[in-house]
Amino acid sequence: MDLECFIKIYGQVQGVNFRYHAQNTAVGLNLTGWVKNAVDGTVEILIQGPKPNLEQFISWAEHGPDSADVENVEVDWRPAAQIFGNFGVL
Q1: Is 24 a catalytic residue?
Q2: Going from the N-terminus, what domains does the chain have, and what CATH number goes with each?
């Protein structure tokens, strides 16, 4: 059974191509969902897939691309509710 994570990433994470790197990382791990910039300056990600793949993605998100400065990552695990067919940038 696939799981879902809502991830909120704090720091210098907007304007540094974080969303596009997140998309490439998620696709490479066969994960689905979305990533978007939030109005509070954070990046929000809803991501689904097998737990080991999600854990790899979270490890990546804790530092992000070289251009980012991640200060904190909040992760909320839950069962997948709505199933996504791909991973998109919103």
Answers
A1: no
A2: 3-89 (3.30.70.100)
